[in-house]
Amino acid sequence: MPQIPPDQIDDILTAASLLITALAGLLGVLLGRNLKTNKTLKKVSNQVSNSHGTNLRDDIDRIAEQIREIKQLLTEDRAALAEVRSNSHDTHKEIFERINQLERPEK
């Protein structure tokens, strides 16, 4: 092992302390960033995680299917209502025609 000259020991110690300080600073930054990332991930996880056993994607798919079924029922109800209105209009027209015939004076 080569001998280190006494006048360079101070330089080596200074370089080693600078390296240790830089590594400690880098480690602090990385740990701080990691803690911040973990904190953010926990917040996001709390927003999208269920408090029950079913999967969020399955819940959304089930709701989407229910909405499609409701839209289909509304379409059917609208068609039925249009038919009822049409029949009602025709029936009222017939009733008014009969009333008009009854109210006409006979000649």
UniProtKB/TrEMBL annotation:
Domain of life of the native organism: Bacteria
Record keywords: Membrane, Transmembrane, Transmembrane helix
UniProt cross-references to Pfam families, sorted A to Z: DUF2746 (PF10874)
Regions that span the bilayer: 12-32
InterPro entries, sorted: DUF2746 (IPR022704)
Protein name, as recorded: Uncharacterized protein
